[in-house]
Amino acid sequence: MFAMNEINQNVHLLPNKTLSPIFGHNYQNEMGDCSGTMYLLFLKQGSPLNYICGKAYKLMTIIGGLTSHNSKQMPHILNTYKMPQLSYASFDPALSDKVQFPSLYRMIPSESPQYVGIIQLLQHFGWTWIGLVVSDDDTGEILLRTLIPRMHQSNICTAFKEIIPAVKNLWDKTTETQRLLEEISSVLSSTKTEVILAHGASRSMVGLQRILILQEREMKPIERVWIVTAQWDFSSVYDSGAFALKSFNGTLSFTLHTRDMGEYEEFLRTLNPNRSRLYLIHWFWSNVFMCSFPKSNFYQMEGGTSICTGEEDLGSLSEIVFEMRMSGQSYSIYNAVYSVAHALHAMFSSRSKQKAMGDGSASNLLNVYPWQLHSFLKNVRFNNTAGEEIYFDKNGALAAGYDITNTVTFPNRSLHRVRVGKIDPQAPEGKKFSINGSAIVWNHKYNQSLPQSTCVESCQPGHSRILQQGKQICCYDCPQCSEGMISNKTDADHCKKCPEDQHPNKDHDHCISKQIVYLSYGEPLGIILTSFALSLSLITLVVMWIFIQNQETPIVKANNWNITCTLLISLLLCFLCSFLFIGQPGKITCLLRQTVFGIVFSLAVSCVLAKTLTVVLAFMATKPGNRMRKWVGKRLAVSVIILCTLIQTGICALWLATSPSFPEFDMHSQTTQIIVQCNEGSAPMFYTVLGYMGLLAITSFTVAFFARKLPDTFNEAKLITFSMLVFCSVWISFVPTYLSTKGKYMVAVEIFSILASSAGLLGCIFFPKFYIIVLRPELNTRDQLIRKKNDNI
User: Topology of 2-109+320-375 in CATH?
Assistant: First the structure.
């Protein structure tokens, strides 16, 4: 009536034409649907089939019915006459079948966006453990068949699924019905889930209303987060006493999209049943205001004393009983009337054009038929008075979305409904679903904190979910991520590895950069080794300077000054080569590190071997007739040193030519560190260098050992034996220690071995001579040398 009043007053829409309503009533059975439809179809003339007479207006379309049952029964008759039908409240997806229902248009959106919205709503608040209560009809079956698979895909589980049986009225006392409702009531009261989704048409959910009301009367309200689908207008009751006030406080409901219209509220305030032609308005008025109309026998309230004046204010009624705002269903009817009006306007405009072109039949505007309206209805597209665009999609459903409404109840049995979100299928991707969580008033049970509904406590970052055997996917354990793995979000399905240059923090919830590690000059270990290397180098220089200053003394001359000088220089290089191992490895240092070490050490050991052979040959040459005399001299010592050193140099050259060392970042040996090290390139070549050096050392040790008792004033064989014993001991222990360490400690082991073995050679061979030259110079004389030699003989 409100829409028709606006249209009839609009001079631009259907000018000089008047829309007029005919009201009919359908019942909840096939016979009632058929008779009500026939009653409307033939203009209240006793339903004479295919016969209409005596009327100056035409029936062009029917808007209805309320339930899916009505909407599916009516088209079977209306299709015969190709009469357009606009359904304003039926969600049955079967109505989208244009083959079976070619004349039906749905003024509500498809159910599919609502299913998507339910999933997104649950995900938004992190609810993964919910209960389902659905009606025992096709509507409930469709939801279970459609929604549950989508929930499982989104890792949302159902704590229970309850089917509400159909009841005739709120207090149906049928024994079987009573038993089923008591079982469902027990489940709803004992469940630990905090979120329950209720779905079904209003008449089908009477049983659930009864459960909730009884629980509240027993002071045991089922206070949960109720999510109600658009099919059930749970707050629409005539008696505020038949509303579960505490249970439904904080409810989130999907509702048909609507817009507030101030004109509509004004229209309601001016309604007077004595002047209005609204269908059943007297019955409605007498029920909600508990009064009687004195001149009517049909609208008398039993025991009622008050008289309906018609001036009662609808705005004074509780919102549970009557809403002054335009509800979703009212908005759908409003748009349905306007859709018909715009389709008629388009059709009449088309006929006016034909008239202008000389078509005489087009001039009779009453010569129109309902079937002619279809082509205009399918393509109707207009902006309603609220500024929203109205049109039908390819399935004949209104291209619209849903509102998400928060219902807040008050102790005085009033309620307030606030729109807190929406689902808009026509919006850009990412904006189809929106919700304002801060605007939601939750049930007072939660003290305005966000309700939680999960099977188990959420897995915190640093943990991952492992399904509990035999349970749903929402029930899981939360072991901590293993070494090297992290999870940085709640309820992670699995842990993930950190990048190679990062490692997990203590809580395994994010990655942090690994520390770059090498043996640096600034750390304590580097300082100590550097100090030792510098000190030993300085000592070597001091020894060399003392020996140079005293090179003409007997003790220096007796020990082959040239070999001694070469040995001291090689030992100095050994101490200095340790600096190649300290600091961040580079391309040059990696190339020089092992090769320089191998060559200078081979030079040092070759010098020791040359000194040992010189001592042995010198003793053998003193015997009469010995042929070894010709080998005694500088050429033998030089030849030994050069040959042995060249062999090691050749090995190192081959190593550099085939597989040289190079710097690398070892990111895997240590969890929290990146080790900057030199990759030796070829491990066999590295151990060949060490092996050759060991061969020289063992040879020197063996020769010196057997020559240790040879008579000599300053018998170097004994000193060389001790020095090579120290040298071999250091490098034999080096190999297992080197292989058992990692990173900078491996380098430190090699530096220590270099310094210790070199210091052993320096100390064992030169300290006794240094002691005599510096502290006992009286022993460094030719007489003392000859006397001691004779004593030995």
Answer: Rossmann fold (3.40.50)
